[in-house]
Write a structure and sequence with these properties.
Blueprint lengths: L1 H39 L3 H12 L3 E7 L4 E4 L5 H6 L8 E4 L7 E9 L5 E9 H52 L14 H48 L6 H32 L8 E4 H18 L3 E6 L4 E4 L1 H17 L5 E9 L2 E7 L25 H4 L5 H11 L3 E7 L3 E11 L10
Pfam families: HAMP, HATPase_c, HisKA
Catalytic activity: ATP + protein L-histidine = ADP + protein N-phospho-L-histidine
Subcellular location: Cell membrane
Amino acid sequence: MIIETGSMLFLHQHVVQSLIDNERKSLMARGDSHRDVLEESFTDNTLQHIVLMESKTDTEVVITDQSGNVIESSIAINDEINSIIFPITNDDLIIEADWESQSYIATASPFSSNSGESGTVYMLKSTNQMKGLITNLNHHFGIAVIIILFFLVITNLILVKLLTKPLVSMKEATKRINEGDFTVTLPVKSRDEIGELANSIQTLAGNLNYLQQERKEFLASISHELRTPLTYIRGYADIGQKPQLTDSQRIEYLKIIHEESIRVSTLLEDLFELAKMDQNSFSITKEDIQLGDFLQTIFDKAYPVFSNSGIELKLYRKQECYANIDPLRLEQVVLNVLDNALKYSDGGTTTIELSKKDNNCKLTISDQGKGIPDDQIPYIFDRLYRVEKSRSRLTGGVGLGLSIVKEIVDAHGGELKICSEIGVGTSVSILLKEVSIGETNFIGR
């Protein structure tokens, strides 16, 4: 409304000023025309002809001599007109321009005829007509302003409603999110900034809802994983206290208690590792390591375990390279992946392969196990997620291993990829940035 009001005031002032300027120029041009005629022919007939012409128009003419005496006039001379006309020495002057407070606007055109006469042609025009015209103009402007303001108000009300309705919806949605209800749905479908904001709030709500469900499942799974071994420990501890047990029975029960206590200890250690990673309080100490020799050490350590399980473990050092890593943390990663391959492979071959891809060292561990369904691969790095929900008692896994693997690889600035096919096996690839150490003599195996 401020812009509209300012624009209308400027336009009105410009139109009025243009109208007055045109009237002044027209009056001046008419006076100059009479002056030119008198300079060519200064006769009584010419004077009377000029006066007769002006008496038929809405303008008036007063012709004076050099001393200011009136020679001819189309209007009766009064005090007001006498105050306007006076001897003029300059050419082409507007001698009265105030149309608002004066009765006339006036111009003066001095002349000097060929026959030696000189004087001034005064042109006058009543301001009443201009005032009436401007009054009508003001009236039309007023109507235009009212119409424009009406449509402006209607348009603004519509725009405000269109803008505030989605904003109110988003406000209510954020209020529900703040109260813990993440199942909000925003119907805003526009592609402008409001639509982008609505999509961001919708995405936020979806992510928070997913985190809430994950937290509930995480706590439920932790409770279950802790309750089960503790129940075994307590139960077999009670049984082990009975006096009628034989030594072999008591030893068997103690063995079960020992295994379950190890399970609880392992779970707590994994949780402690994840807690440190979440708080960014776990540290990695990097150094430049030759990955071929590093993997050879892990291979030698894991080979007997795989052999005893009837699984053939192979190491292929196709291309040697250096990487800046924390050897203890990366060994934890490799052993964790190998442990999963051992648990879910019934025979077959598990391979560890070292190669290069672009400027990266590529470490690939492949097994011939059960495989993972495609729809579950995106979730296997979630904490406590298990592809087979009932397998923990058979394999001892609680679904934290791959979460730790992902965190450690990310901390190294690496990339972790998994490809799997049901009944064929799973392949885990780790890409680490290669570092240049200079030429080294490698021993392949």
